[in-house]
Write a structure and sequence with these properties.
Helix content: 40-55%
CATH architecture of the largest domain: 2-Layer Sandwich
Largest sheet: 8 strands, mixed
Active site: 458 (proton acceptor)
Main location: mitochondrion
Number of domains: 4
Strand content: 5-15%
Protein name: carnitine O-palmitoyltransferase
CATH class of the largest domain: Alpha Beta
Radius of gyration: 29 Å
Mean pLDDT: 90
EC number: 2.3.1.21
Shape: globular
Membrane topology: Multi-pass membrane protein
Low-confidence stretches: 1-16, 735-759
Oligomer: single chain
CATH superfamily of the largest domain: Choline/Carnitine o-acyltransferase, domain 2
CATH topology of the largest domain: Chloramphenicol Acetyltransferase
Length: 759
Amino acid sequence: MIRTLRNTSVSCLALEQSYKNDLKRHSCETRCNSLIKGVYPASPSSWLFVAIGILATMYMQSDPSMGLITKIQQHLPLHMSLSAQGQTMVSALVFSTLLWLSLILALRFCLKLLLSYHQWMFEKHGRMSNTTKVWVPLVRLLSSRKPLLYSYQSSLPHLPVPAIQDTVSRYLESVRPLLTDPEFKRMSDLANEFESNLGNRLQRYLKLKALWATNYVSDWWEEYVYLRSRGPIMVNSNYYGMDFLYVTPTSVQAARAGNTITALLLYRRKVNREELKPSRVPGTVIPLCAAQCERMFNTTRTPGVETDVLQHWLDSEFVAVYHRGRYFRLWVYRAGRLLSPREIEDQIQRILDDASPPLPGEEKLGALTAGDRIPWAQMRKQYFSSGVNKRSLDIIERAAFFVTLDDEEQGMRGDDPEGNLDRYAKSLLHGKCYDRWFDKSFSVVIYKNGKSGLNAEHSWADAPTVAHLWEYTLATDAFQLGYTEDGHCKGDVEPSLPQPQRLVWNIPAEVQAQVSSSLAVAQALADDVDCHVFPFREFGKGRIKKCRVSPDAFIQISLQLAYYRDRGGFCLTYEASMTRLFREGRTETVRSCSNESCAFITALESGETEEECRRLFQLASERHQNLYRMAMTGAGIDRHLFCLYVVSKYLGVESPFLKEVLSEPWRLSTSQTPVQQMNLFDLKNHPDFISLGGGFGPVADDGYGVSYIIVGEDMVNFHVSSKYSCSQTVSNVSVSWSSETSHTVVGNHIYTRQYSQAF
């Protein structure tokens, strides 16, 4: 193996040199894009029109500057080198440039004001106010130019700090159905005392932060919720995404890896060149913040004793590959050229054919990223800060992303498709606890039978950003790159490509002992996770929307009904909502268990009339939609209270109210994975190419984690997780029927047919 490394060292140096040249080209593209997005919503060429207009006006013996051009001419240090006419020309061009920049700032300010208007979200369908009727064409006018990925960033509004009275009032309203009268009175007293005393002081500090911070929540959310967590990120934080449900484009493992890696790198190229279209609110021209795309590739989470750190590199021309206990560096560029899918397949096949055994301690080294963070930080600092270990670790951390060539077969297959689907989910969530590198921004898993999936680290971005990447990857793999008749990638192979580089380690006994300890912690966590994946085919958003009900509200109320029937009561329910209408926005909590939803469920379970239940259901659905819109527009509850708590910690003061609020368990944690690029999938001609979406682990030890994706008009895919150690939770409940209410119970999700048909 050492001989092979020496033989390929010259080739690797050549590749590194070409990489440096490619960085120069990338830097030039970056400067060009910076100019284009820096003047948006204007264009660089608009300067020429302004300059020509000013010069033409002056030629007609008129001074559009009202004397400013003359003043500029007096202060120009060009009196001796230019004629009077030349000085006038230069002064006019300087004035034109200043006028052009002023117009750009004015246009950007106007666009920011327009994007700060959110009342349109609260208007009922078909009942547009006059203000909104004027607002829509103005937004379209200022967004008419084709934007780059980050063009809107400087025009997005900042997240507002809600009034503390509003937040406290909304909080009390959200917990009312969960508390008895004495409990609610006690919580009300705590809230009122906080609002009238400490709360106002903390609010002043928070408003000061909001004045200088781009987003008053995001940096604290990233640090304190994710990076300062000292427990395992596997299962607790990382989440997964799945392959197509019914289709595997090829059963050749190396070929699937070749196309998948190529598609991911093509997406990275689009991100680097800012060629991706900015994401927008579905059905509108309203842009969403694209900041999370910046750290998608070449990013890793490095462990620390007190807090982890996200490290991002400009670019990387290789990926890190794990197979049967060995780590490899796979160059994916040759002299600045992206290798063809067939060439990457050939390189992957070389790794699969490599029969060399793992070095001592190498096979399960990845368990360090799956266990507790402090031991990993200590091992990294002591044993991976120099020598061959540092060089090998740097390759993994600087890689574009991590690839695992799994020797198992996964997917919905065989005689037990339901059970195999559950095992597929568990495999992507935690694998063997050592065959993924959980610190990487995302790790791609390619199984022996050609099935694929990914595991994503959570601190750098939220699921919709990763889902957008994965949608593009699946569609590009299946519909654009494609395969030959025998299942191999298309393209030619350059015979002189260097072998994949085997990474070298020197793992001492102390590190091996810690690897075993971290693996034991991770394995216990993985063994406790109960996953169930269920494609619901009875009906989908098509029938729900015909009932004039929001599909998301319908599903959320159904989940609460399921929990009520499962546990005999209501619980604090978390639904993730985005705040990407604002710059650097991430998520907000929708407290979807409301007074209205509880009233509907209570009425349904107590046997109220169909008419009354229908009325209450409509109220619950409208209430949920309003809560979701408020969360999206910066009027949520939980991020504001979280930031007030952080301020209290900085000031060293205790708040019984905030402490109790932030310690409340989310026993039902839910999230919808939206399909963002339906144009990439032709479900009419290729109905089997349906995405399974992804899922995550349970947030509370005695609760459920529920992720769902609404696919097309007639299908909803669910991912349910819980813990075996809790006797009160079961992710997979067999199908049963009740003639009284005619409902389907699967994985603790209940869809009441009589109401879906009645609305």
